[in-house]
Fold each of these.
Amino acid sequence: MRTRLRRIVVAAVALLTAATGTLPATAADRPDDRSRKEHPSAGGLSAVVRYTEYGIPHILARDYADLGFGTGWAQAADQVCTVADGFVTVRGERSRFFGPDAATDFSLSSAARNLSSDLYFRGVRDTGTVERLLARPAPAGPSRTAKELMRGYAAGYNAWLRQNRITDPTCKGAAWVRPITTLDVAARGYALAVLGGQGRAVDGITAAQPPTTGTSTPSGAAPDPARTARAAAGLFAADSADMGSNAVAFGGSTTANGRGLLLGNPHYPWQGGRRFWQSQQTIPGRLNVSGASLLGTPTVSIGHNAHVAWSHTVATGVTLNLHQLTLDPADPTAYLVDGRPERMTKRSVTVAVQGATPVTRTQWWTRYGPVVTGLGSSLPLPWTTTTAYALNDPNSTNLRASDTALGFGTARSTADVLGSLRRTQGLPWVNTIAADSAGHTLFTQSQVLPRITDELAQRCSTPLGRATYPASGVAVLDGSRGDCALGRDGDAVEPGIFGPAALPTLRDAPYAENSNDSAWLANADQPLTGYQRVFGTIGTARSLRTRGALEDVAALAGRGGLTVRDLQQQQYANRVPAADLAASDAAKACAALPGSTATGSDGQAVDVSGACGVLAAWDHKAGTGSRGALLFDRFWRRLPAARQWKVPFSAADPVGTPHTLDTDAPAFATALADAVAELRAADIPLDSPLGKHQFVVRGGKRIPVPGGTESLGVWNKIEAVWNPAGGGYTEVTTGSSYMQAVGWDGGRCPVARTLLTYSQSSNPVSRHHDDQTRLFSGEKWVTSRFCEKDILSSPALRVVRVGDHR
């Protein structure tokens, strides 16, 4: 039976190879090959999906439409409910199916409630925004190849719906699981593109209404510059718990064989529409790429091919700016530009609502973008009779990310990766770190940002902007002046964004690393400087995760002789940098407390004597068996960051400072007392192993989870939900997701280890709902099956021929 199965697969490969022929390398490197006739647009789409261990599909197709078909089909098989939920969002139909007041999952925007989400996305649909972007010729718009992928994806998803019965209880029998169109797929890509811009401000866009005619400007309504600057700095902080990542590329001078190495560790949500999904995509002679895609998208976002590997980290570039409008005294819906009034564009949007009459609201748009009354609750921007604020998001015209990804998939070197970024300019909010089989490395902050130069900010900032721009990179420009337009770089694909020459880039360093701080210390020995403030800071304190990562990777590079195994060990080292800096001092200060007691924040005395020995004996790791990790974690969360260190940050020693725990500060003893009291109240022993109280429940069973939170600085980042009544940290919200350790040994196949921490399927009845999660718990990896011989030799091999059969 096994031999017969392999013969069938070999025959399918041969058939597909014959159908496509063999392209010369130059053609295979460019996915938008206009001279090649693609598969007909009407029906007849098909692919072969070969499943190996852990339900990983290897999708084999004749062309890009067929590849999209196989991808859409296989994604639906694993994630139909989550994918369908996202398409409800981008159609603006959440209120219709789930009610207007229910909370969103925040995966595709910051909207707090379904009604706000719908008003925004229905507005995008009503105005034909995505259709116009699809119609733009490449490179400003998506290539024909990218559109064929989208078309195929929609057809494959729909075919799965027609041919299969949904077993996931989340959406079994649900009316909101419906066929999709190419426009839906493109709209989901659009939502991801504007996630850091308009998507961040959905509530402020949909709630923006002019002041009632005849009212005067409210007293004190203007935002306070200092307070707004602090709020903006917090909102755009690099160490946000919501999204993050680590990645490091090692050059040939540091490795055992002179070839490159890449370790990718993105920190993304464990639930909802920003989950990754793993696959291999192959068009013989044209494309062969393996990695992870964001749900609802047809391309590999993070991955590797035979020659190059890459990962992304969320970047510090601020993907929006504000224009402060001077309003016409006679009309708050008109604004002045060079003394002449311009009327705002009024958009009326109607949303269907479950069990009620439709809701119609008005949005107001300007030459700069939508009027916005806030960036979240912490940063209000009131619309008064004299002033309003418009949001500029350059990614609102960016539907190019699929072409960037296709360029990565066909790249043969880090130079080709950089070439794809420069040609397509499609990544909205991430850095790229890459390594190749020739030993080259790359770090680049090639993201689409508003063209805010420091000179422009100096010349055109309003008083509010003069506070927010240095503090956060958020520019607030004077919208009444035509000379404050963003302008155009000669090498930019469109006006108003930076061209490739302005983007922070480091090539061929012994190592290139990023952990969500700015580009400055991608390599601590070769700092990047000279970029504009909107990209991030220079010479400022780094997060503990960045500091710990730089210590680790610099030591590895200095040691040399590195292999993929070293990358695997780094991922699961679970070292707690905060503990290396502070745990010993905390243990000593604990032992020195009079009477071994400390006063908690409630004024009660707490016996902390048991904590002293636990902290002293702890291994300073966040492995599932580490005793003392939970105690230190709960203590560290309570210690105010401003009161942690005696020795402050120094730009001359950015990795080593600040340091020396300030145990003399009253906050130290209070935090320790509160942590001890909290664990005792939850009946959790102070020396209990971390994994006993940091876990997820799958199939009714607890799976211990290694790793630690952002503030601890752990590479293997895990953000979990604290539920002491349930036993501790009982679910993971974000953290390590699709991990890959990739290298080369001179053979035809890359040496790759991968892991999808939350597993392939969100369907609780799937056998691939928790299998990789259990591997993650045991700090294990999956050996990548990239070459045909490896796929065909899989003991779990299962072949499915998928087609558009009606």
Note: The CA atoms of residues 263 and 761 lie 24 Å apart.
Amino acid sequence: MSRIPHVRGSRLALAGTAATTATLLIAALAPGAAAAGRPTPATALDHAAAALSEHAAALGLTDDQDTEVRDVIVDGDGTQHVRYDRTYRELPVLGGDFVVHLAPDGDFRGADRATDTPLSLPTVVPKLSAPKAADLASNALRAANPGELLKKLTARPELVVDALHGTPRLAWRTDAAALDSLGNPVARTVLTDAGTGARIDAWDTVESASGDGKSLYGGTVPLETTPSGSSYRLEDPTRGGTYTGDAENRTDLCLLTVCLVRAPATPFTDADNHWGTGAADDRASAAVDAQYGTDATWDYYEDVHGRRGIAGDGKGSYNRVHYGTRYNNAFWDDGCFCMTYGDGDGSAFGPLVSLDVAGHEMSHGVTSKTAALTYSGEPGGLNEATSDIFGALVEWHADNSADPGDYLIGEKVVRDGFGRNALRYLDRPSRDGSSADCWSTSLGDLDVHYSSGVANHFAYLLAEGSGARTVGGVAYDSPTCDGSTVSGIGRDKLGDIWYRALTVYMTSSTDYAGARAATLSAAGDLYGTGSTEYAAVGAAWSAVSVG
């Protein structure tokens, strides 16, 4: 008789230790979600543990596997959703994650699994050595940065089970990182078959978007700060203590995921609590934008989705501005739980601290704490699109007349040298010259910043509908791939549906077909399967050739 697979993290999470990645979160779909009698996260964990024991076979759990809680959501009606990662013979399983869905009384309703393929390997002893895997990944990083003399290149292999790419197999997941000629970080993760040495997949590790104080882009904005002696610190005690510091144009010194030296984040201080001049030559001005972007992103997720902070635990992150030298990038880093902004090169980009860039990058953090969409192939495109969608929604929610909401990404940071007026366009993504408007079988071969176009197009159609129109003074024209006419249901409903799909139904391997199913499930939960909203989701996906 098979023993019950061990469930790790359930009790440790309640004790508040660092030994588990579980995030305890109540996501209310209706007022009064924490009312007496409704399940608590602790109750949900107990229900889920019982469900795993009873339905181990259906979930593909065997004696060789363990599970660990990543996230817990309790709906307003008491429905529970518990997300797990799994290991096989103590090795992480890529594509092993799943979400268990439970009725308010704890009865098992079903599960969404990243893969249904049975996990069984003849051995977990690799034929390919770790040093050889490291060499292959190092060469891949060099090939991805042609013409660059990379410095301080390191590669760190980790043995995993790859269940994302067909039949499960033993693999090396190797994070390769280095500094380019300007001292800015470059990084790539390479997945290598541990038996044959063949490359399975590779993707960039740094998730990026290529991109009362006086800000560079948002005018004069309100800021919550912290008194410090006779001055003030740019630290917000009302939003988990998030703060903004000066990286002093330095970069991190990291051995892959372990950073030996972090670029500083020297807190900004001010004597009279009026920050910045609105000009780029004042270092505090970019800090105002960064802090404001963090505030606006926090407020969007809390006001709209009931989520306090990126991890949903009420804790603030921090920002570093003036990172590197002429660094044309901004990125979210789970390792430091922080946002980092470059100053741009002044030709193609200005400082990358605009509101939608902040919302985009910090939404990568939300994704990593929920569905953890793999950053390659179709899941990678959905990861990027999630950040574009929420970046736009953060900008709309902020309702700032100096930077009004629109369906453009990065329009404030681009300069004449970039050649167009935004980084990406949700109404017709191909306007950037590279992104896909419609799904095709080759979509997964595109860079994730371009395969994201299909979901961005879906999102615009779902919110606004097809055809030409002007929204907020900006002209858009969104044709459909099948010649259909789509009617929009509004931005608010788009955000609600996508957030629920991300946090409840999507997994690390969700592709576009899976995203259609996840958003339909979310729309059914929120509005009913016979609703106009449910039908609109299906129509919008069909209009971009998904489903």
Note: The chain has three domains: 42-113, 130-204, 216-223+288-544.
Amino acid sequence: MKFTDGFWLMREGVRACYATEIRDLRVKADRFTAYAAVKRVAERGDTLNTPLITVECFSPAEGIIGVRATHHAGTVNRGPDFALPGLDPEAAGARTRRDGAVTELTSGPLTLRMDGDGPWGLTFLDADGRRLTGVDAKGTAFATAPDGSHHMIGRLALDIGENVYGLGERFTPYVKNGQSIDIWQADGGTSSELAYKNIPFYLSSRGYGVFVNHPGKVSFEIGSESVGQVQFSVEDQSLEYYIVAGPTPKEVLARYTALTGRPALPPAWSFGLWLTTSFCTSYDEETVTSFVDGMASREIPLSVFHFDCFWMREYQWSDFLWDPDVFPDPEGMLARLKERGLRISMWINPYIAQKSSLFAEGAEHGYLVRRPGGDIWQWDLWQPGMALVDFTNPAARDWYNSKLQVLLDQGVDCFKTDFGERVPTDVVWHDGSDPERMHNYYAQIYNRTVFELLEKERGHGEAVLFARSATAGGQQFPVHWGGDCFASFTAMAESLRGGLSLSLSGFGFWSHDIGGFEGTPDPAVFKRWLAFGLMSSHSRLHGNVSYRVPWAFGEEAVDVTRKFTLLKHRLMPYLYGAAATAHRTGVPMMRPMLLEFPGDPTARMLDRQYMLGPDLLVAPVFTEDGQVEYYVPEGTWTSLLTGETITGPVWRHETHGFDSLPILVRPGAVLPWGADDQRPDSDWLDGLTLRVFGPASTPAGTPVTVPDETLVTVPDLTGATAATFRAVRDGDVLSVTARGTDRPFRVVAEETGATGEGTGTVTVRGAFA
């Protein structure tokens, strides 16, 4: 929200008060509180008829410093508040220090400095004393708008050349500078400024992050209202935000996700190919079986089959009952599908249509959200007379899960938790929550409710969702997909921008509808999207009005689907290792180039390519004719598909067929390569190959620096370490030693093609030119 009219004036009807000078300071061992006047105090009379802003500075966790600015402290907080599992002030190790008028608060590598003699301001410093950002004049304030609403305002300085990223899954430009962004859930598709997943956290290219600890609407002005500042405001009497230390972007995400919750590790089977019925298409068991048979006859391995909305009867979503006219034997059908090795996913949502048998049941027991006068909240958008399940009511959560339990007992493995964004604010919640704060937070309790049921029934490590909405902390309940995108190259690119922004908001896993959701893609769009989708965290074929079976788009589409599905399966020892890293550290699987190359100025701007795990660079092709432009960082990289080497830093212009795209392996990488290309959850140590990409030279003959020793871990199906391999390069000799396994493995030196096989230690001579 903007409050000013240019630099000098306020907008009509806006009155603002800014922290100006410190009138009192109270310092404890691990925190301090400043009382800031909103005008200069020259005499005692200036202290009358004027407010103070109370500014508390503390550390909620190691390497994170919080600032809470409050105008009137007597306002009742009815919740909800973000659950912060990593909140641990005692373990933060925060300490204060005073030197004259200067007061400092330090936690880990981060220091907050306040000078009591100068004008109001706060400075955040890294471990080397470098200024990261700061609160300057007009950086701590409150304002009243013409409608009488009260807003708390914070501002942090932007340095020259500093970029801002994140704030959820946003399809607008990847670098957020110059944008006005409201953290407010909306069902807006992928082609607008609205977003399904709004996260009040941003990451700076200077090596820090900012989390605004408020679950309601947070309005960000990123170098927009004031071009040298990031401003954030809330309609409240208090504003709390946290500065998260780096110094690297990975360390920022590690600290942020430790605070808000690390992603669960999805089961390995979920990384295979998902096929759905699509949305508005007509289907029954015969149709489903024909799809499964069609994939099998074309030798395309399928891992998950998903039933979208019309598994239930029209006008009755959600009653969680199979349409008996279309599916007279659902248990038998599911058993037949599972006999073929498939997992089953079902579409659900939190809306209860009036025609559903659950409407009367939910109304009778108080499980549906009500208006202030006691009426059940209803409207006709999406479903006629639909109501909303009140997940703040524990009994309503149990009731909802009891309906899903029937499906689990029938053999369903996971759920697509659709919707959760269109949450009204003119309602009363069971637990008394503030409707404005609950609007965004509803997604969290909705997805948590279903995820916890899956964990309870299927076991730890076997739960997975396909969720659309999320708020801060939602990364704990993967996987999330990008929502309703058009079947076009433009939408394909905007989907990737959204995924990269979400990954810089703490989410480890992300997917999208291969081929686009709205409309029917032409074969070129579908085939290009296939390669992108299968080189993503999770891969799903899904559409709106038409099926997404590959043969509907020609035989070449079948070949492309097969090729990249088999490739993903061979990569699973590597990919699941990256998934386990996301689970342990919060560093996402699909990584913007900034995460791996924060010191490279070019990498800070790239939004049409990414790193898949630490060692694979992927550049999707967004053109029918196969032309692609992408950037290769420093070092000699190797094409995974062709073996060609490319020495960077360099921009590449290439043309690729539909069965190809740039996938480059990082210099010095050791890529664990599975033997089984038929399924994602095989025994990866059985027939394992270690593909070693060794040192190479630039055209000028200057050696590229790569590690002389590389450790690579192969996980088991729980994400635990199954075996570790130590690769040592000495001249042209490569030695690889296994730990944790006595099974045979193969080593391939990719530079020369030299190979070796054995157990324990395998030595390959002539490995490097």
Note: Residues 697-705 have pLDDT under 50 and may be disordered.
